[in-house]
Amino acid sequence: MFAKQMIAAAVALIAAQGAFADDKLVDSVAIDYGNAAKVQMVRFSAAKDWSARWFQSNGTHLSGYWEASAGLWKESQYQNISGNTAHLWDVGFTPVFRFENDNKKGIYYEGGIGVHRLSKLYDNDTYRLSTHFQFGDHIGIGYVFDNNWEIGGKIQHFSNGGYKKPNTGVNFVEIKAAYHF
């Protein structure tokens, strides 16, 4: 049910984009799929590009975007019991720095750290997160094609920053598909 709601939200964002053709509400939408130790995640996001360009040289620059996201996690060893499944969702907001070509096409490198709110405490396999509030940081690499489609990969870490124990953290390896308007 939640996955259907997330797909509907992504479609609504794409449809709404046409209504704001001159003054874009979002510059891109994306879907990520990730795996960690006995947990899978799917996340939908919308991004708004920054207008700033730092260190512009030789056709490249450093810029970035604001990302708002919502994701669904499926734990497959909930409370360290094999075969015991549970679901949780997260809502996040992340500023992301991206090193890219001036035309925003081709290869890019990025990194960001943001905040996430989990719907319940993560308790899967031998990993525990003791708070609903988590930091989500990532590094990634990808490619934006001439037709505005993007593919990428990233490594993402979730942790509460050590302000409450246990805090084993969760590390996802993710693939991303996005479309830029």
From TrEMBL:
Enzyme superclass (EC): hydrolase
InterPro entries from the UniProt entry: Lipid-A_deacylase-rel
A single MF term (Gene Ontology): hydrolase activity
Swiss-Prot/TrEMBL catalytic activity: a 3-(acyloxy)acyl derivative of bacterial toxin + H2O = a 3-hydroxyacyl derivative of bacterial toxin + a fatty acid + H(+)
Signal peptide range in chain numbering: 1-21
Coiled coil stretches, renumbered: none
One Pfam family here: PagL
Entry membrane topology: Multi-pass membrane protein
Location(s) in or outside the cell: Cell outer membrane
Keyword Isomerase (UniProt): no
Keywords of the record: Cell outer membrane, Hydrolase, Membrane, Signal
Superkingdom per UniProt: Bacteria
Entry EC number(s): 3.1.1.77
Main location: membrane
Subunit structure as annotated in this protein's UniProt entry: Homodimer.
Family (UniProt): Belongs to the PagL family.
Protein purpose: Has lipid A 3-O-deacylase activity. Hydrolyzes the ester bond at the 3 position of lipid A, a bioactive component of lipopolysaccharide (LPS), thereby releasing the primary fatty acyl moiety.
Protein's recorded name: Lipid A deacylase
Organism: Duganella violaceipulchra
Upper taxonomic lineage: Bacteria, Pseudomonadati, Pseudomonadota, Betaproteobacteria, Burkholderiales
